[in-house]
Structure formats: C-alpha cells, structure tokens
Amino acid sequence: MRRAAVADRTTRTAETPPETPELRRLRRRIDALDRRIVALLNERAELGRAVGRAKATAGRRAVRDAQREREVLLRVTMANTGPLPQADLIAMYRRLIAVNRALEARDRKGPIR
C-alpha cells in the first residue's frame, strides 16, 4: 500500500469517529501478521531460487514446471478451509508462482554486465 493511502487511512476528519481500542488491537494484529507473511513470502522466494539453482545443476533447462505448479495449486486449495474463496487463493498463488519463476529466470541470466 502506498504511503499516501496509509496516511489517508489514519487521518481523522470531523465525520470520522475515533478508533476504538478493539479496532486498534485488531489492526495491530493484522500489521504483525502482514510482517510475518512478507517474511514467509521472501523465505519461499529464496527456496524457489535454490530450486532453480538445483534444476540448473541437474541440467534442467526449463524454468517452468507445469506439473509442479498444478501440484502446488492442488495442495493449497486442499488446505484452504476458508473464508478465502478458492478462486481468489488460486489467483494469488498463480501470481506468487509467476514471481518466483521470474526470479529463477533472472538468476539464470547471471549478473548484469
């Protein structure tokens, strides 16, 4: 989220009722969870890069492994107990997989000269 959007959310106007202690507590929990999610996403990206290096070492030229991607999507949909709709979860994971593929492809190109 852009800083301006964050500032807009926290700016109070005459019509905005004050933030209740419960709302403040819930938002702090969300903020803490967001930090954990970012750390986990970065950990997953590092593991994906390690997989890419292992694939390259094993002589696998393709970055994309469609079968593995289907397996990942199947596992996450089976793990989903809601309230997140399956279609939204799949969309998020497809994007996550695409970002990890891009990192792997970038790593394979080597350092920019």
Helix count? 4
- Overall helicity: over 70%
Beta-strand share of residues: under 5%
- Which class of secondary structure composition applies to the elements? mainly alpha
Write the H/E string, N to C. Answer: HHHH
Rg over alpha carbons: 20 Å
Average pLDDT, to the nearest integer? 89
Topology of this protein?
Blueprint: H1 3-10, H2 21-57, H3 66-79, H4 86-109
Helix pairs in contact: 2-4, 3-4
Written overview of the protein:
The protein has 113 residues and is mostly helical. Helix content is 73%, strand content 0%. It contains 4 helices and no strands. The mean pLDDT is 89. The protein is elongated, with a radius of gyration of 20 Å. Helix 2 (21-57) packs across helix 4 (86-109) and helix 3 (66-79) packs antiparallel against helix 4. The longest helix has 37 residues, at 21-57.
Brief digest:
With 113 residues, the protein is an all-alpha fold. It contains four helices and no strands. Helix 2 (21-57) packs across helix 4 (86-109).
